């Protein structure tokens, strides 16, 4: 669940489930990177921009046990042309808890054609054929 914050920022919570385990009893780093990427990607909605991840640099500061709620905080740090720079932290035990993971990202603004040209044709056609314009538009959302 993500919530809009002050300025161009969002907060979210991610509960590490047993299926997210890497090392015994601990979250897999790839899952944590995915949680950060999804949270960072949701910032683009506040800019009303379609953008894709160009770079995601992740620092794993401390282990995250299974069944932990990771409190994520992300914000835009700069926008330059089609480039959107952002940063995020994931904390254990609450929004003020110790930092477990952090990430810096670069998103690149793209046109909807990016998905039409590169997506699977059957799914693109199904989305384009949907008479419900709201559902059609949502089919092309990035990181909703």
Give the gist of this structure.
This protein has 144 residues and is of the alpha+beta class.
**How many domains make up the coordinates?**
2
What's the CATH superfamily of the largest domain, by name?
A: Hotdog Thioesterase
**Count of helix runs:** 4
Query: Percent of residues in helical segments?
Result: 25-40%
Low-pLDDT segments, ≥5 res: none
CATH class bucket of the largest domain: Alpha Beta
State the end-to-end distance: 11 Å
The CATH architecture of the largest domain would be: Roll
> What string gives the helices and strands in order?
EEHEEEEHHH
**Oligomer state of the chains in this structure:** single chain
Topology:
Blueprint lengths: L1 E3 L4 E7 L13 H18 L4 E10 L8 E12 L2 E10 L6 E11 L3 H6 L2 H9 L3 H7 L5
Antiparallel strand pairs: 1-2, 2-4, 3-6, 4-5, 5-6
Description of the molecule:
The chain is an alpha+beta fold. It folds into two domains: 2-110, Hotdog Thioesterase (Thiol Ester Dehydrase, Chain A, Roll), CATH 3.10.129.10; 111-144, no CATH class. Helices cover 28% and strands 37% of the residues. The chain has four helices and six strands. Strands 1-2-4-5-6-3 form a six-stranded antiparallel sheet, with helices on one face. The N and C termini lie close together (11 Å). The mean pLDDT is 87.
What key attributes describe this structure?
144 residues; Thiol Ester Dehydrase, Chain A; six-stranded antiparallel beta sheet; 6 strands; 37% strand; globular
């Amino acid at each position: 669940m993500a919530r809009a914050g002050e300025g161009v920022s969002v907060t979210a919570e991610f509960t590490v489930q047993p299926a997210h385990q890497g090392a015994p009893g601990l979250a897999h780093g790839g899952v944590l990177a995915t949680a950060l990427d999804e949270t960072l990607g949701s910032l683009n909605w506040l800019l009303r921009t379609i953008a894709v991840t160009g770079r995601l640099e992740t620092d794993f500061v401390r282990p995250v046990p299974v069944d932990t709620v990771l409190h994520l905080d992300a914000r835009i740090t700069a926008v330059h042309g089609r480039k959107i720079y952002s940063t995020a932290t994931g904390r254990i035990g609450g929004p003020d808890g110790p930092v477990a993971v952090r990430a810096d990202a670069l998103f690149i603004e793209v046109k909807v054609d990016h998905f039409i040209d590169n997506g699977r044709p059957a799914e693109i056609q199904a989305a384009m054929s949907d008479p419900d314009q709201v559902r059609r538009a949502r089919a092309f959302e990035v990181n909703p």
